[in-house]
Write a structure and sequence with these properties.
Helix content: 25-40%
Number of strands: 6
Number of domains: 1
Oligomer: single chain
Order of helices and strands: HHHEEEEEE
Structural class: alpha+beta
């Protein structure tokens, strides 16, 4: 008599598949906050590194013009053949002075992740640093002769006032100071960058980084949003 072997293999039941899917979904839900936090940290690290690169340009520019990019230097730079139009309204305008003056051939160092930015295309003729390609705000018309703790370049700032967007860098602000140091400051619930205690970055008065000269809000130039 010939024996036959029956196929005893069987697949997952519907209930078993649902259990596996539920486990995978639960693991994904637990991992997502960690992944997002690490992504924000990486974005902040990129902003810190780019701020440092901008400072090197600032120092070289200051050596040539005796000041950082300003209203006056915008009129002194020869833009012939560059197709770059300079202005004095946004941080994009002031940072274009680096491009028009031949200090850099890359837009990427002006990028800082925020809700108003997009990745630069490195097109330097005419459309240099167009809307969204710069993520840093800039406090214009300063020099190395003022308080070294003053902010020079910052991210990620909102489009109005001295307020920071707390989301891109997990409640942190990246601030390049005139002394070349880059600080990662906590952003409080009022969207202000905190220095120490209750003191914030744009507080004014004799005992602040702005000193007796005060702070002129008109010098704060925001990035042009996309």
């Amino acid at each position: 008599m010939k024996l036959t072997q029956k196929n005893t293999l069987k697949g997952f039941t519907l209930v078993e598949l649902l259990v596996v899917i539920a486990i995978i979904a639960a693991l994904a839900a637990m991992a997502t906050p960690v992944i997002l936090k690490q992504k924000k940290k990486a974005d902040m690290t990129e902003a810190v590194n780019n701020a440092k690169q901008i400072f090197y340009l600032m120092i070289e520019f200051d050596g040539d013009f005796g000041e950082f990019p300003s209203d006056a230097s915008a009129a002194d730079i020869d833009t012939t053949g560059t197709g770059v139009t300079l202005g004095t309204s946004t941080s994009n305008d002031y940072f274009k002075q680096f491009i028009a003056g031949g200090y850099t051939k890359s837009e990427e160092i002006f990028y800082a992740k925020s809700t108003i930015t997009k990745k630069p295309d490195n097109v330097l003729k005419g459309d240099a640093l167009e809307a969204g390609e710069c993520g840093f705000a800039y406090v214009a018309n300063q020099s190395t002769s003022v308080n070294s703790g003053r902010p020079l370049v910052m991210a990620p700032m909102e489009e109005s006032g001295e307020f920071f967007n707390p989301d891109p860098y997990d409640n942190k602000a990246v601030v390049l100071r005139i002394d070349g140091s880059v600080k990662q400051l906590r952003v409080n619930q009022a969207k202000k960058a905190v220095l120490t205690g209750a003191d914030t970055l744009f507080d004014t008065g004799e005992d602040t980084v702005w000193g007796s000269d005060g702070y002129e809000s008109g010098n704060l130039k925001k990035a042009l949003p996309k």
